[in-house]
Amino acid sequence: MTRIRILAALALAAVLAPAEEGGTESDPSKAPPKAKQALNKVFRGRIVKIKKRKVTIYYDFEEPEQLLDFEDARPPRLLDASQNRASIEGGRLVLEGSTAIRHKMEGSGELRAHFYLRPSQQRNMGTYFTEPVMSDFFVVLNLFDDRFYKDGALLLAACGLHEDEGADDLSTGLVNWRDIFKGNAKKIAAVGQDVEVEVAKEGWTESCRVGDLEGKGSSKGKMAEMKSYHFGLWVHGSRATVDDLTLTVELTDEFLDLNDLKAEIEVEWEEVAETGPFAGVKGVPPRLRQQVEAYAAGGGEARDLVDGLLRTGLPKDVRRICADVLEARKDPRTVPMVIDALYSADKTTREIAIGVVKAICGQTFGYSAGAREKARSQAIQKLNAHLAENREKYYG
């Protein structure tokens, strides 16, 4: 998207009220169908797309009730059953100790999950797909596994367990484990930083992307094919938080019948944002879109947009638009909020942040995103001195 297009979108947004439910629909005549209303009775997440039986649901984890869409689902024989801690805190899903949860939607065909993961430590966490009956039959996509791989490197793999394999004890060597792909991404999935994760399963094929590292493979082998499955998240002796989860799944007949949805689901509908700063931009979490649109229209909180530009897991154009909206409003109180970003190890974050400073203060104070750390620190000292001399303007 060109800067001219962004500015035009901002100008339009300034005269619009913030969109309800975090986005505008493409046409008033395309109001949410009965299928969306029916799904809203089953799930606490936000339904954003329905394409016949394929449903896309989004979680911002702002409401504790959203945890009700998940169930305790520790993979058999993998996690300590005495520990199970999952909660929603501070707008994020928190998994700690040894726990696993799975979403209640049962799907077949394609199942895809997209979210932002923040590891508290690089140890034992990942996602999995399991059969509805919760048998010993599942596929695991592991991150930072040190149970089977002692170096604790990021591992992308397929694992199948089945009772008649005699795998009562993981140490016996009878586990039906089969790697499909793997790679090391310790720098990509850094402690305390959001990293974008996307996993998918369709038939025999599993795929996973963590930041820029991605792989694809097949679990076909000793395992029987899963006819239907659920998506889940797990940690073992570890801690991680998750935000902005988008889950797409083709619902099974069994699930539709169980929830009285079969008569309602055969429709096509999508929540589409055609106006505002993010018009036509993909990969925007609905909550962030709502926050940016509100700020562009004269309301909202600058802190929300600063948090957006700091999230290294978001697409760069999304982060830059957060900065563009802050620059357009030119509120001096924003400058102290972006100082931490000038210390970031991520160069793109530093470039975006100094752009905000320059737009509001009219200068960079000699700061260059590509300069060495000592030179950057000296420039930040000059910026801090400027803020101190003009405290009323920047902190009032």
Question: How would you summarize the topology of this molecule?
Answer:
Elements: H1 3-13, H2 34-42, E1 46-51, E2 54-59, E3 70-72, E4 85-89, E5 92-103, E6 107-119, E7 125-130, E8 138-143, E9 158-159, E10 177-178, E11 195-202, E12 205-210, E13 213-218, E14 230-251, H3 253-258, E15 268-270, H4 286-296, H5 302-310, H6 316-329, H7 335-342, H8 347-361, H9 373-389, H10 391-395
Antiparallel strand pairs: 1-2, 1-15, 2-14, 3-5, 4-5, 5-14, 6-11, 6-14, 7-8, 7-14, 9-10, 11-12, 12-13
Helix pairs in contact: 4-5, 5-6, 6-8, 7-8
Please characterize this protein's 3D structure:
This protein has two domains: 3-12 and 283-395, no CATH class; 25-270, Jelly Rolls (Sandwich). The chain has ten helices and 15 strands. The protein has helices spanning 3-13, 34-42, 253-258, 286-296, 302-310, 316-329, 335-342, 347-361, 373-389, 391-395; strands spanning 46-51, 54-59, 70-72, 85-89, 92-103, 107-119, 125-130, 138-143, 158-159, 177-178, 195-202, 205-210, 213-218, 230-251, 268-270. Strands 1, 2, 3, 4, 5, 6, 7, 8, 11, 12, 13, 14 and 15 form a 13-stranded antiparallel sheet that branches. Helix 4 (286-296) packs across helix 5. It is globular. The two termini are 35 Å apart. The model is unreliable at 1-29 and 162-175 (pLDDT under 50).
